[in-house]
Amino acid sequence: MRTAAGVEACLPIRSDMDLVWVRQHVRQAAGRLGFGLVEQTKLVTAASELARNTLVHGGGGQMETAPVSDGPVRGLRLTFSDEGPGIPDLERALTDGYTSGDGLGMGLGGARRLVHSFTVDSTPGVGTTVTVVSWASRAPRSREGH
Amino acid sequence: MPEHEALGEHGSPAREVGEFLRRRGEQIAQRWADEPLFRTVFTVSRDEAVEAGKIVVDALAQVADTDQVHDPDAAGFTLVREQLSRMGAARSRAGFTTAQVSNDVDALRPPVENLLVSDLPDAPSDLVRGCTTALTVLMGTLRLVVLETALSEGQALIERQRLQLLEVATPVIKLWDGIVAVPLIGTLDSARSQVVMETLLEAVVDQHARFAILDITGVPTVDSLVAQHLMKTVAAARLMGAECVVSGIRPAIAQTIVHLGLDLGTVITRASLADALAYALHELGADIVNATPGGAGRR
Amino acid sequence: MSHDFSRQMTGHVPVLRLGDVLLVTLQGDLDDSTAQQLQQDIGEAIVDSGVTGVVIDISGVEIVDSFLGRVLAEIAANASLLAARTVVAGMRPAVAITLVELGLTLPGLRTALTTEAALELLSGQQPVTRAGGSGRERR
Question: What pTM was estimated for this model as a whole?
Fold first, then answer.
């Protein structure tokens, strides 16, 4: 995969209002990259879930956005990072129904289903970084059957 | 010949080639204009072909200047990539195989090589060999760039057609005020299921449809992934305030669904499209008058 | 980076009374505290006015995440305790698809295509569509 990365923007996640900025920023960025309405809505929703995780469980942090490309297909990479307590049991955190804060326990597991690639890097006591990528076209969707 | 005296004092053979290309650009372009690659693409006027040829020669000269004759990503090529892809695509559209396009590009080399050799009658054989080698490598790289652009062009075309096919294969039909249906025919894969879901839900909004019928009579097999997509469509329709009915589940598919241990649970299913329509009409309060005993409600 | 203030709501969402029904229209992007405030406002409005129905028009809402989804479900549950029925109207297809993919089928929530359909539904002219019977859609 060829990715022409480069961080485009970095948004703080410190309050409820920041979640609104995160959603609007992701929507605009995805729109500029030619995302269809459904893919755009999925990515914005995933961003909202992940940003809320960063705020509620990570004690605040930031989101970085970077456009990526794979041949002619363009996409958006979002990186959420915090310096919070980390996720002790990642496997469990990705299971539906697991929740340790507000929400219906759809946070991580739900967000994972809304994007094309999803990676979590968490060290207890150091912090958590979640990176997701979504593509503007249906073509490279490779998440069939997981 | 004063030129070749200058040759040899300059840097690498590649740069010599760059200088030669600049010097002889007009002549090369004239010769290329008669080659199939240019002749068949620029059919309207020969001048246009010569002009295009000159742009390509300039790009090659620029690549040679920077000693990057072997590098398809060299900056010089980016300038002509679009032009080359147009030429490659035109040849592909005309039904030429990639190998033939490759030969077309190859045919551009001999005229240039002849010119180059005739430019160096008294030059040391080492230099001549170095220059022709550099030219050969450069033209080989050009061929690679053309093929690369032609291939990605082809891929983009396939992708466009695939999306068109997806749309064509998903007609949403209004059956009644407030009732829409999608008769699905052929294999459902994940991408198509996605399109079906989006198209059907859009139609629900546009038509103010309280009922949406997914008829899968023409679908040969349903695997667990497709069954999940069907259930997701039903769930999404409900969130929007519409009811989704799945009709035409053939016995073999019903067996598969049971076999896979899938719980279609709350999904409303009917044997045929007619049954589904009758159900939806009844729910809308539009009952069918001429009832046939045991029948599916002939109108 | 430019912020688009026009699409965002803060503070209170107006709750209108229409006969026996409360009508709430959500627009744009709700921040969490506004959503929670709305939940409280609706509860109080039901008690004050004694209405029997609540219609929440979300046709102007571009995303519903698990937080807002939970708020909607809780508004309905609270209203039901106060003897009022809640209908969520006008959810956009992209929002519905996303919610289902997220795993949130909001079982028990009444839904309608439009505000008009929701009002008809509350006045008992039409059968009720209930969202996500099983609520267990998984990949």
Answer: 0.69
